[in-house]
């Protein structure tokens, strides 16, 4: 039994279902970019319900839109518009499925489903490729479409890798620290190897002590108190992250943590330290920080931004826009400019993120090790 839906409403939906999904997917991405960072600092029920709903709908709507695009291109009875521009939009939907850097999962259970997400990546990428294949050789938007498709595939894959790294199985494998001989071990071995054949043992000891003293004297007093607090929080997080996978903490770590807190003079500073620890935990488990804060991730972020700029320029100057409808042209420009703005916002947030500041400090710390 069919529902008594008026015929004019059916025709209107058949005409606008794809366009509605495209616009709705863009709206959901804007909501995630704006509101996802709030979740880290707020316990408001309405915010969590809203973000949970947007998080689920964002994946669903983008996947449905890709399906509608391929359906409109393969069904001869459905004439909804320019197939080339639809294939272009399908590449943008891969960007939407990749999501913003500020949220990859809503709960720890989502991280466990990284294999299912990987299957979704393969399926949706195949759908976008199939949509593009249907427009060849008459596709006048081939160059910008290929550029956006490449960036969208990378962003979608980044999210899957972030889910895998944050899954408890993998997190447990890296929770235990690697054996650490000390920051002066390599320097001591190098000095010993260079001097043992020409110097007496007493001279070796004096040389090693003098060189290693250069590192011990290194005390970054220019660092702000907030940076020192962040580094302390990171040190404590490294000691206690095994608790998330039911590892036992040694008595030395417990006593060290207790000593650090007893040395803090004010309660406000203690709570600030705990806040930094919780922030690091949240970023590693529910954002892309573990993927982006690496050399490969930084290179990919730089290339993706400039690729979107090139795609926008190529669309503006190399494509005959007179054959496009006004609505299609507006939506495409909104997609292009929106993707560039989101990449810029993500880059700024990355520069000021806790993990990025810690990585910069660690690189600076390594540069002070005598060679």
UniProtKB/TrEMBL annotation:
Classify the source by domain of life: Eukaryota
According to its UniProt entry, this protein's organism is Ziziphus jujuba
The residue ranges of the DUF4220 domain are: 52-367
Q: Which UniProt keywords apply?
A: Membrane, Transmembrane, Transmembrane helix
The name of this protein is Uncharacterized protein LOC132800533
Transmembrane region(s) = 20-38, 50-70, 77-97, 117-136, 298-318, 330-352
* Family annotation (InterPro entries): DUF4220
Traced from the root, the source organism's taxonomic lineage reads: Eukaryota, Viridiplantae, Streptophyta, Embryophyta, Tracheophyta
